[in-house]
Amino acid sequence: MTDQVISAATGAAAGNGEDAVIHVFVYGTLRAGEINDMMRAAERHQLPAPAYVGTSTLGGRLYDFGRYPGMVLSTQANERTVGDIYRIPAALVAVLDEIEAVYPGEAGLFVRELHDVAHDGATYSCIVYPVTEAAVAGLPHIASGDWVDYRKTREVSAV
Asked: What pLDDT shows up at residue 21?
């Protein structure tokens, strides 16, 4: 994806003096309390804190990569991934790209895409970091679609 995704996600007209409004849907280690918590990432880079909008779901199947999950997007009604929507400063997108190893012109595990996510009667155009179907071959499927609950249960089971 290109910076057009960021431009399309801003919702602010160029040159009108308004701050860019960008939303992101996070479903794994970028969620609050996880290893790559966006709040801590923003703080480390001296950026304004993301604003939590709410928890929602997006069409997708979640898979266990070990230390993090990956979501394959889906249009099937029974395949949903739980995540959180945040309003973020534009400068945080580069930090998230770095965490997800998304670099312009380079193929990687994750890609940056823009998808509509509904929450509390509103629809938000959100940056999302999915993986491809090929990337999850042979990996455990997280049937609940919730990485945080799954990880906590997995850690308790391992003890």
From this structure: 83
Distances, alpha carbon 64 to alpha carbons 12, 101, 102, 133, 137, in Å: 36, 18, 19, 13, 11
Half-sphere exposure of 50 (CA within 13 A, CB side): 30
Query: What residues contact residue 156 under an 8 Å CB cut-off, 6+ apart?
Result: none
Q: Distance between CA atoms of 27 and 33, rounded to whole angstroms?
A: 12
Q: Is there a contact between 58 and 89 (Cβ–Cβ < 8 Å)?
A: no
- Predicted local confidence at residue 105, as pLDDT: 87
DSSP string, 118-147: EETTEEEEEEE----GGGGTTPPEETT--H
When pLDDT is cut at 50, 70 and 90, the band that residue 18 belongs to is: very low
Q: Sign of torsion, CA 72 76 82 88?
A: positive
Residue 22 DSSP class:
E
Phi (first) and psi of residue 11, to 5 degrees: 70, 5
